[in-house]
Specification:
Protein name: YdcF family protein
CATH topology of the largest domain: Rossmann fold
Keywords: Membrane, Transmembrane, Transmembrane helix
Number of strands: 5
Mean pLDDT: 92
CATH superfamily of the largest domain: HUPs
Number of helices: 10
Strand order of the largest sheet: 3-2-1-4-5
Low-confidence stretches: none
Number of domains: 2
Strand content: 5-15%
Helix content: 40-55%
Domain DUF218: 83-249
Shape: globular
CATH architecture of the largest domain: 3-Layer(aba) Sandwich
CATH class of the largest domain: Alpha Beta
Distance between the termini: 30 Å
Pfam families: DUF218
Radius of gyration: 20 Å
Transmembrane segments: 12-35, 44-61
């Protein structure tokens, strides 16, 4: 069942990604033009062009992303003691790392900065990384776990403090495979992941009976006063793609019983 869920999620996202959807619709409109069906082409190309222009001109994606990022905030006061620091995979660029044989970080690289800060604050706490490969085509590699070990030791965390889980392919499997590795099943663990991903991660952790204290990093939205017309399509898609994916993920995980709440709250 987990295998089917993984494959379905990857195939589904190929058609639901906002960037891909725009290209598919433009392609469909061009096909109608090629077959001289001008009226159908207009019905597709005009709204698609308008939506693409709005996304390019103004960071409307912030309005989709902001509720996710503001759901959980960094603790005002850190607890005196924790039983470990859990960092979710996703900050690595696995394909480029394999291509160039170097440890490359992606947009979620802030997860490592947050983890390094917490590891210094709690010098005796184990650092637990969980993440394999979320790509269908990169399942026969060492995955993110090998990269994580290299990156975490490079930023100064001793190898003996590390617990690495490298089989998981999605957030549900992150916690499913990590739970047996935890030093204390009922312990308290700081959870480091991207702010937009934190609601779903917390919901799954709770469903698995893992006590986590959210420590969000990797924010993607702008402050209200900095949100302006800037005609930067690439930058706007960097927020729109993960935000749209996360709302879909929250819905699917809730409907399939992987979380008990659609939009988990503090």
């Amino acid at each position: 069942m987990d295998e089917l869920f993984f494959l379905a999620s990857k195939i589904g996202w190929a058609f639901l990604s906002p960037g891909n959807l725009l290209v598919f619709l433009l392609f469909l409109g061009v096909l109608f033009l090629l077959f001289n069906n001008v009226s159908s082409a207009k019905r597709i190309l005009i709204p698609t062009g308008l939506v693409a222009f709005v996304i390019m001109a103004y960071p409307v994606s912030d309005y989709l992303m902001q509720p996710l990022e503001s759901r959980f905030s960094t603790p005002e006061t850190l607890p005196e003691k924790v039983d470990g620091i859990i960092i979710l995979g996703g900050g690595e660029d696995l394909k480029r790392s394999l291509s160039w044989q170097v440890a490359e970080l992606g947009m979620g690289g802030d997860r490592y900065i947050g983890t390094a800060s917490l590891a210094t604050y709690y010098p005796n706490a184990p650092v637990i990384f969980t993440g394999g490969s979320g790509s269908i085509t990169l399942q026969n590699t060492d995955g993110e776990g090998a990269l994580a070990r290299k990156i975490l030791t490079t930023i100064g965390i001793q190898s003996e403090r590390l617990i690495i889980e490298s089989k998981s392919r999605n957030t549900y499997e992150n916690f499913k495979f990590t739970k047996p590795l935890l030093p204390k099943t009922q312990g308290n663990y700081l959870l480091v992941t991207s702010a937009f991903h934190m609601p779903r991660a917390v919901g799954i952790a709770r469903m698995q009976g893992i006590n986590v204290i959210p420590y969000p990093v990797d924010y993607r939205t702008n402050a209200d006063e900095l949100r302006v017309f800037d005609f930067d399509l690439f930058d706007h898609l960097k927020a729109l793609e993960p935000a749209w994916r996360e709302w879909i993920g929250l819905t699917v995980y809730y409907l399939t019983g992987k979380t008990s709440n659609w939009f988990p709250e503090p």
